[in-house]
Write a sequence for this structure.
């Protein structure tokens, strides 16, 4: 059952409500009654929604470990959560609409240019919704793993690591479990719509951080514009990858770290930190030292200071213990999954069975790494490096030096803005020291967003006193508008939206497909139930679930050298022996993507122009069932040696070779 | 007396220089962003050549290749 876009939007709305409902209850429980100050209603609701979805992801994971991850179970829980949310909204609707009215009133009192800036931000937010809703295809890594793994879990009703990507299945599954839950409710590629409210919640919490730092409405608009003009953030909202979840949860952890100290805020900080690190393992690097620094700083800022240093140290240690304990509880289900399925409870950070390939990554050589580090922060904003996945908003780079014009705070160490900026800087610096060769803003987006705060504060300050710097103020506002327009033009693909809109409302128009999808669909049409497919191709989302479960495992192609793709198949002496090996592995179909796995054609002696296998065992025929661009798909037929046709079909065998002579 | 008179002038000059430098910075970073990102530029033949020139090719080591 596949649902249409309007129904998908309704289901995602109900799912969002459910996350908010459970989260409100959980957040109120964790926050407790002893807390001195609650945040604004919108930030409270955004935080509740993020906490609720973190809890749901953990719940889905636990249910999937029991093998009962069915649509009926998920649907019942979502319905209960949505009902809870409706009751919660009856209480909070008044305050929420009051705050929204305040924002509207402030907007009306703004100058025309700042009205345009705010409208640009709203256009970016809702443009993102259009992009994610009307773009039905996942792309890139999402097609390879981040949506293929959820598809397999949803189809099986239990957690099954996606063959070939076992190394990624050992990471925490947060966004992936949401995809999977929504798939059990009938959604396919439209599950990605759920990333949009998540991104929105992250943006609202950033505005809340700005308010906490004492910044006004203009700075809040600007800080919301920053993630939505960062390609390193926007493209992961709509492409199906799950980085948005880690980013939002990391920002929530910072949000609670900068609230007035209370047991409640400590518990929430710990919960968000624990699940954020599970959603994006790299966040442990900036969040660990950053949150520790926030705890120490908050203690120093307290009015009623304990008398002795030892008492203060014990106090900070106690707070660390609380945060760590709650973080471990939040991460518990993910650790349980790794323990039960992989025997690695501490993965992905500590490997009990040998070298840790997940965390010990090195993307570039020494020369390129030196160049990248020397060109920070330009490389973060303008870099177009392999695997980087988009940069940070140019608004940060443009306006950060303007912080020099900010008035000197009354007390440097009491300034929340200074505290947030330095903790953001610490997170980035620690990352550069620990992982200099990994240039990927999406890995450390929360601390990078903290660096946007002084930039936003500077612009607000300059625009507040235009008499002193009229030209600079005009330039700043013009720059913001320009960046908004360029970002909108860059990631809102109008032509693509029109094509998909046509398809949506006029089913006769063919849906756009790319070769990898067509090759997988050709295999889907011919493969028997539970057939085995060898994927010389990263992108496997389009395969049928029963085929997905049985595609090649890492141990079938990688070993003996885990770093060299095809190492096991390469070790065979010739093409005939390799065909025999995959036949012995039970594979009856092969999909080859020449863009990434061109070597397959040489290893298996396939002519690229005609897609004919030139060297085959005598009892095997290989039929090309799909070929376009550099992508092709093959069906392997096992025949009695005497049946091997001497006159092959256009896409069939040539030069049959005896099996016994080769392997 | 002359020192007292020149003090506001010096301050004004310093402000103009600092603000001018910051304005140049904002303009330069904005221009580079537009050139690197917007279709008007990178979609053109000149933009493509320039893009290739600034693109840093690295010895990428993918986990899978």
């Amino acid at each position: 059952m596949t649902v249409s876009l309007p129904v998908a939007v309704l289901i995602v709305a109900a799912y969002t409500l459910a996350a908010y409902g459970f989260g409100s209850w959980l957040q109120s429980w964790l926050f407790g009654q002893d807390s001195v100050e609650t945040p604004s209603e919108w930030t409270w609701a955004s935080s509740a929604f993020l906490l609720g979805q973190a809890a749901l992801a953990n719940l889905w994971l636990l249910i999937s470990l029991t093998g009962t991850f069915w649509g009926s179970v998920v649907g019942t829980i979502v319905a209960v959560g949505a009902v809870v949310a409706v009751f919660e909204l009856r209480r909070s609707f008044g305050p929420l609409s009051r705050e929204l009215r305040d924002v509207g009133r402030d907007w009306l009192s703004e100058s025309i240019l700042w009205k345009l800036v705010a409208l640009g931000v709203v256009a970016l937010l809702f443009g993102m919704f259009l992009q994610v809703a009307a773009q039905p295809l996942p792309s890139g890594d999402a097609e390879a793993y981040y949506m293929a793994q959820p598809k397999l879990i949803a189809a099986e009703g239990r957690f099954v690591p996606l063959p070939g990507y076992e190394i990624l299945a050992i990471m925490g599954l947060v966004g992936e479990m949401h995809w999977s839950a929504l798939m059990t409710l009938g959604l396919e590629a439209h599950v990605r719509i759920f990333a949009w409210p998540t991104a929105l919640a992250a943006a609202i919490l950033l505005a809340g951080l700005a308010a906490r730092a004492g910044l006004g409405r203009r700075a809040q608009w600007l800080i919301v514009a920053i993630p939505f003009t960062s390609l390193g953030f926007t493209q992961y909202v709509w492409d199906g990858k799950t980085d948005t979840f880690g980013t939002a949860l990391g920002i929530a952890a910072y949000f609670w770290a900068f609230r007035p100290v209370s047991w409640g805020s400590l518990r929430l900080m710990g919960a968000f930190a624990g699940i954020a690190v599970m959603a994006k393992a790299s966040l442990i690097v900036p969040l660990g030292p950053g949150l520790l620094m926030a705890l120490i700083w908050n203690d120093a800022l307290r009015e009623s200071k304990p008398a002795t240093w030892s008492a203060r140290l014990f106090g900070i240690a106690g707070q660390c213990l609380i945060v760590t304990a709650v973080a471990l509880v939040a991460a518990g289900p993910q650790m349980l999954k790794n323990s039960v399925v992989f025997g690695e409870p501490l993965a992905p950070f500590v490997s009990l069975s040998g070298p840790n390939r997940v965390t010990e990554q090195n993307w570039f050589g020494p020369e390129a790494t030196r160049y990248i580090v020397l060109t920070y922060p330009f490389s973060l904003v303008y870099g177009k490096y392999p695997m980087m996945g988009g940069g940070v908003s140019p608004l940060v780079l443009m306006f950060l030096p303007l912080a020099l014009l900010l008035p000197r705070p009354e007390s440097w160490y009491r300034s929340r803005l200074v505290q947030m900026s330095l903790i953001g800087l610490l997170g980035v610096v620690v990352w550069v020291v620990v992982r200099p060769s990994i240039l990927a803003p999406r890995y450390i987006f929360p601390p990078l967003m903290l660096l946007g705060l002084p930039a936003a504060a500077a612009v607000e300050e300059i625009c507040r006193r235009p008499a002193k710097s009229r030209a600079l103020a005009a330039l700043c506002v013009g720059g913001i508008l320009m960046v908004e327009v360029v970002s909108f033009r860059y990631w809102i693909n109008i032509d693509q939206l029109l094509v998909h809109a046509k398809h949506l409302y006029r089913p006769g128009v063919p849906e756009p497909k790319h070769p990898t999808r067509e090759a997988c669909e050709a295999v889907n049409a011919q493969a028997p139930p539970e057939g085995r497919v060898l994927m010389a191709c990263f992108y496997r989302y389009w395969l049928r679930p029963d085929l997905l479960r049985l595609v090649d495992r890492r141990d079938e192609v990688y070993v003996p050298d885990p770093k060299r793709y095809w190492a096991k198949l390469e070790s065979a002496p010739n093409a005939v022996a390799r065909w025999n090996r995959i036949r012995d592995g039970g594979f009856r179909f092969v999909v080859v993507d020449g863009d990434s796995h061109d070597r397959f054609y040489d290893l298996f002696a396939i002519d690229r122009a005609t897609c004919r296998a030139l060297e085959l065992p005598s009892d095997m025929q290989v039929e090309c069932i799909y070929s376009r661009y550099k992508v092709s798909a093959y069906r392997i037929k096992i025949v009695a040696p005497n049946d091997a046709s001497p006159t092959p079909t256009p896409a069939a065998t040539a030069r049959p070779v005896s099996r016994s002579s080769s392997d | 007396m002359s020192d007292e008179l020149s003090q506001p002038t010096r301050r004004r000059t310093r402000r103009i220089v600092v603000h001018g430098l910051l304005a140049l910075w904002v303009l330069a970073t904005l221009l580079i962003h537009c050139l690197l990102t917007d279709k008007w530029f990178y979609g053109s033949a000149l933009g493509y050549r320039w893009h290739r020139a600034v693109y840093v090719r690295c010895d990428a080591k993918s986990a899978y290749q």
